[in-house]
Amino acid sequence: MKKVINSPETYTDDMLRGIYAVHGDQVQPVGDDLRCYARATMVPDKVGIITGGGTGHLPLFLGYVGDGMLDGCGVGDVFQSPSSAQLFELSKACNTGKGLLYLYGNYTGDVMNFDMAGEMCEMEGIETRTVLGNDDVNSAPPEEKDRRRGVAGIFFVYKCAGATAARGGGLDEVTAVAEKANDRTRTVGFAMSPCVIPGTGKPNFELGENEMGMGVGIHGEPGVWTGEVKPARDLAKESVETILNDRPVAAGGRVAVLVNGLGSTPLDELYILAGEVLAELGERDITVAKSYVGEYVTSMDMAGASISLIELDDELEDLLLAPAATPFFVQEAK
What we know:
Helices cover 31% and strands 24% of the residues. The protein has helices spanning 11-23, 84-94, 108-123, 154-166, 171-183, 232-246, 267-283, 314-320, and strands at residues 27-30, 33-39, 48-55, 72-78, 100-105, 128-133, 185-191, 211-214, 225-228, 254-261, 287-294, 304-311, 324-325, 330-331. The chain has a 6-stranded mixed beta sheet with strand order 1-2-4-3-5-6, with helices on both faces. The protein has a 6-stranded mixed beta sheet with strand order 9-8-7-12-10-11.
């Protein structure tokens, strides 16, 4: 294992120390707990939005804490959930009187610990709501959508919910927007190689030299097929077809597209893939209102990519294009 680290045991805390050192004007820990990651200054009288999850997916989770997006993030060890106690402390710090939205991916450990934190908040008189990102089409069939994993598409949900909260929306409104954005978002991902987790020093699954896995999860969860590496145009076609079969977008519809790298895929290749995705959508007379290309949700050093679509209406498009500024994502006013 070759990684730029001090030790596997200090991996997460060392990463956080580096982020606080570089971006301390924007983000700070709550109290002495590095894992309770929050905006350096809370906005008064605003719905707080809290997310959380394991290390290893940067910029996912903590990377989207900042103006126009999220207010706090519970940080777990690599691919592990943050604790309920950390989430509770974070909740108290992010509460400015209008309640909290817990917005995170649909993973068992995260659900359990956020639910426990919500119960503790209730005892303190802090109102919370929950929206689970579950955009990974290949992780469960449509009739079992509630079992689907949350992956890169949650970026769209963060953006729309965050813009609503920044504009002064109440807890009911922010929650409704998050639910609407989540319902309209779908993602398909694929892996070209496994990743190496610092604590084990070994690949977390196996692929042959010329093999890829379609539908592999961001923790190495099994996909829907393993086979020979396909050209970008074929991957784009299969991914777009899978997404639109699951949630059709009519001709003349408008979408936003996210082509996301999983950690070790060059930007050149992501743009090749993005070009093919936009061509596929163009053939279906679907308008792309906004495209995002880059690393938004990674899986350590996994090679591969994911494609996310959100079907837009006037409300969601306006929210998606609203300004935001975090240490890892900046969008200027349209």
